[in-house]
Amino acid sequence: MMKSGVIVRQTLTTLEANGYSASQRPLEAPYLAASAIAEDALGIVGIAVYDTFEILHECWRDAQSAVSALLHRKLGEADPKLKEAYLLLFCLTPYYGDARKPREIAEDTMIARKFVVLGQQLETSSTLDAMLEPLLPLPDELSGVATGRALEELSSLLERHDVSKAVSSRLVKAFLGGEPLMDAIAPAEV
Fold it and tell me: Which residue, among 50, 41, 137, has the nearest Cα to 88 in the 3D structure?
């Protein structure tokens, strides 16, 4: 079984290697065995480690509230679509009870996307790395290929639906520039 400090350190190391900054303060919520906060320009990752699943199940909302408060303080009234909040919930001991309970927590995406890792899953550090993948950017070699294919598919799709080349070009330019796609088209031109 991994120790709470090891979980936090390894998680922060992986996040920092991928553009996040570790906060100097812990996540403030009751009954945590260990905690940490990582941030990037638009979001917060709360790391909450609990001794047992029973404590996690009773207290995860407190950790979520702490993440929500930090996110609101960090980004204020910025467009909610720009904000990202993740809550990594770890349970140090194995849990073999009702499988729906951890799944229900993970499926609750209000305020933060949650990842629940149970004690029996913490056998190796590769579990942590695999669990963090959805929070990390795609490797450059994969993102370039995916973007190229996506742009080819986008152009084909637009052609099949009689969208003009001018609008198609503006959409692709907006996509590559990370700009809102709806701003790239005028309603009359679609």
Answer: 50
Tell me the average pLDDT of the chain.
Answer: 84
Report how far residue 49's alpha carbon sits from residue 33's, in angstroms, rounded to the nearest whole number: 5
DSSP letter (8 states) at residue 17: T
Quick one: 84 and 159 in the same domain? Answer: no
> Domain residues for 174?
140-189
For helices 4-16 and 125-132, give the axis angle rounded to 10 degrees.
Answer: 40
Phi, psi (deg, nearest 5) at residue 147: -65, -45
In this structure, are 93 and 154 located in the same domain?
A: no
What is the Cβ-side half-sphere exposure of residue 171, based on CA atoms within 13 angstroms?
A: 22
Q: Give the pLDDT confidence score for residue 190 in this predicted structure.
A: 43
Query: How would residue 146 be classed by pLDDT, with cut points 50, 70 and 90?
Result: low
Q: How many domains does the structure of the chain reveal?
A: 2
Assign 161 a pLDDT band (cuts: 50, 70, 90): confident
Q: Are residues 24 and 100 in the same domain?
A: yes
Give the pTM.
Answer: 0.72
* Phi, psi values for residue 112, rounded to 5°: -145, 150
SS (H, E, C) 21-69: EECCCCCCCCCCCEEEEEECCCEEEEEEEECCHHHHHHHHHHHHHHHHH
If asked whether residues 167 and 180 sit together in one domain, one would say yes
- The residue among 108, 135, 162 that closes a domain is 135
Pairwise pLDDT comparison (78 vs 43), residue with the higher score: 43
